[in-house]
Amino acid sequence: MSATLAPSPTEAPALAPRERETLRHIAAGRTYLQTARHMGLSTHTVDAYLRRIRAKFDITNTAELTRVAIALGL
């Protein structure tokens, strides 16, 4: 688990619109498959978006993804 807190929106790395949408769905508790179907994507694309988000924020799990989503107001 990362020792850092979620960054404030002004310090946050830039996310592409589809990355933001994907993060919003996952933080809302949807599965990769549900997110993919809602966005019209494959589960592999959803996974790729989430890997990029994790790399940008240096986080490793879904709880941290959710914390970032809340900090960003998603």
UniProtKB/TrEMBL annotation:
Quote one Gene Ontology molecular function term: DNA binding
Q: Where is the HTH luxR-type domain?
A: 8-73
GO biological process terms held by the UniProt record? regulation of DNA-templated transcription
Query: Which PROSITE patterns does UniProt cross-reference here?
Result: HTH_LUXR_2 (PS50043)
Any idea which UniProt keywords this protein has?
Answer: DNA-binding, Transcription, Transcription regulation
Entries under PANTHER family matching the protein: DNA-BINDING TRANSCRIPTIONAL ACTIVATOR DEVR_DOSR
What is the name listed in the Swiss-Prot or TrEMBL entry for this protein? DNA-binding CsgD family transcriptional regulator
Native species: Streptomyces echinatus
Q: What is the lineage of its organism?
A: Bacteria, Bacillati, Actinomycetota, Actinomycetes, Kitasatosporales
